[in-house]
Specification:
3 domains; binds xanthosine-5'-monophosphate; 9-stranded mixed β-sheet; Rossmann fold; GMP Synthetase, Chain A, domain 3; about 525 residues
């Protein structure tokens, strides 16, 4: 089964492929309780240990009446652990407890009005005074006969058994989705299940995570050495600081300056990690190597590959000099882990080859250490604050591995990099000055390989075109452009054109993703 090696009490989600499974985990964690996921195909009753204080059966695209017996290990239902079934999870719980499920003529998709019929611990503070609520449904099948000892708690017009319970076994089923925000007071159902029914205590707060993770690293690593690449981004910074607190001088951080970083970034990384946090930092200035390798290259994928490969080569040559290293630390996050384990996960077309420190030195036979593999991005940020990292680092916009190279379509030259660094710097400074930086998910300047004519004073200019991009997004998968006021756009355009020799025109990118991507290459 999946990675249940964190020694904490938890609510286990058994995933049947619902698009909302991540949301259930997030809701539980927002209450400060640890929750993890496992695929219905992998879990066996013998995997259920004492840490599991409650189980949630997720929704999913399957049909209860078409299931083969292997869909789910039925013995899990006789372990005496409280269970909440959501949508398909509710149907399978009813079916396996002796009830009936059928395809219904009354499919419910979207809002439904739910009426209270009986009291239950599960619905404490869920219904408002009038004993009805709006809930969000997404199902074609429904429970048509309740199993023995189950009671109806609430119904909609089309689903008689919209909330049900078996008080003796602590089994609960809801046909709607309490985890989505469209369900009024949906969080109350989750809260009641985890605290009133499963009796969980809060154990997933940044402070606990910090102690827990540091302890685990200490136990796993012992007196061995760990290497870690530092990029200056949030994830690698938090990984480095966690390891620093856990093993101190046995951590070796390698920071490669590709020359394609944001303005002054290398100085910031050295100041923060070497000087302030006293982390063992190996700084490698490889600007010239990267520029030379990228000479005459304008194809985006070739650029990405050259940068990725050279990065690995440099990293390896320095890592080899540190003797007896056993571990490589990586900033893998929870969504990376569950996406690859998802029961519905499908292959997506390759849009761009991402450069990540990820699967780096396979040849070096290092063991991986991934301290953030249980955390979502916002949890990583909170943990970073708990570890005393600067807010500036923690709340920084994402920055791609290949850096400014992919924000400069066409050829890469030292002159163009210098111009772009300044333009980007002025843009970000202006966003901060106007309190816009944190309203935007990612913003940057790019330099287009076009020169246009302008006039400054009485002189003709013939200089580059600067493109500004600022987007709002949840996770970088989809994005919309940010709507600036005219005064801001005007101010930043003036600042860039007036201050940077080499740019005489500024444009603002107003495409969303899709159809565009966030980066230009
Ligand atoms: P795109 O351009 O694909 O970008 O819409 C989505 C998000 O991913 C970042 N990005 C990268 N991050 N290595 C990274 O670590 C890469 O090679 C890479 N390429 C794009 C991009 O900045 C945006 O946040």
């Amino acid at each position: 089964m999946m990675s249940l090696n964190l020694d904490l009490d938890k609510i286990l989600i058994i995933d049947f492929g619902s698009q909302f499974t991540q949301l259930i985990i997030r809701r539980i964690r927002e209450f400060g309780v640890f929750s993890d996921l496992v695929s219905h195909k992998k879990i066996k009753s013998s995997d259920i240990d004492n840490n599991i204080k409650g189980i949630i059966l997720s929704g999913g695209p399957l049909n209860v009446y078409q299931l083969n017996k292997k869909i789910f290990d039925k013995k899990i239902l006789s372990l005496g652990i409280p269970i909440l079934g959501i949508c398909f999870g509710h149907q399978i719980l009813s079916k396996f407890s002796g009830g009936k499920v059928k395809n219904s003529q009354h499919r419910e998709f979207g809002y439904a009005k739910i009426h209270k019929k009986n009291n239950s611990l599960l619905i404490k503070n869920f219904f408002k005074k009038k004993n009805f609520n709006k809930v969000w449904m997404s199902h074609a099948d429904q429970v048509t006969k309740l199993p023995k000892s189950f009671k109806v708690i609430a119904s909609t017009n089309n689903s008689k058994f919209a909330i049900v319970e078996n008080k003796y076994k602590n089994f609960f089923g809801v046909q709607f989705h309490p985890e989505v925000t469209h369900t009024e007071n949906g969080k109350k159902i989750i809260k009641n299940f985890i605290f009133s029914i499963c009796k969980m205590k809060k154990n997933w707060l940044p402070k606990n995570q910090k102690f827990q993770l540091i302890q685990e690293i200490k136990e796993r690593v012992g007196k061995n050495k760990v290497i870690c690449t530092l990029s200056g981004g949030v994830d690698s910074s938090v990984v480095a600081q966690l390891l620093n607190k856990a093993i101190g001088k046995n951590l070796y951080c390698i920071f490669v300056n590709t020359g394609l970083l944001r303005k002054n970034e290398e100085k910031q990384v050295i100041d923060t990690f070497k000087k302030k946090l006293k982390i063992n930092l190996i700084y490698i200035n490889a600007e010239n190597k990267f520029i030379n390798k990228l000479k005459n290259i304008s194809n985006p994928e070739t650029k990405r590959k050259i940068i990725g490969n050279l990065f690995i080569k440099i990293f390896e040559s320095y890592a080899k000099k540190i003797r007896d290293v056993k571990f490589l630390a990586q900033g893998t996050l929870y969504p990376d882990l569950i996406e690859s384990k998802s029961v519905t996960g499908s292959q997506t077309a390759k849009i761009k080859s991402h450069h990540n420190v990820g699967g780096l030195p396979k040849k070096m036979k290092l063991k991986l250490i991934e301290p953030l593999k249980f955390l979502f991005k916002d949890e990583v940020r909170k943990l970073g604050l708990e570890l005393n990292l600067d807010k500036d680092i923690i709340s920084r916009h994402p920055f791609p591995g290949p850096g400014l190279a992919i924000r400069m379509p066409g050829l890469i030259t030292k002159e163009k990099i210098a111009i772009l660094k300044d333009a980007d710097h002025y843009f970000i400074q202006a966003l901060k000055k106007h309190n816009l930086y944190h309203k935007i998910w990612q913003a940057y300047a790019a330099l287009l390989p076009v020169k246009t004519v302008g006039v400054m004073g009485d002189n003709r200019t013939y200089e580059y075109l600067c493109l500004l991009r600022a987007i709002t997004s949840e996770d970088g998968m989809t994005a919309d452009f940010f709507e600036f006021k005219k005064s801001f756009i005007q101010e930043i355009s003036n600042k860039i054109v007036n201050s940077i020799k080499g740019i005489n025109r500024v444009v603002y990118d107003i495409t969303s993703k899709p159809p565009s991507t966030i980066e230009l290459e």
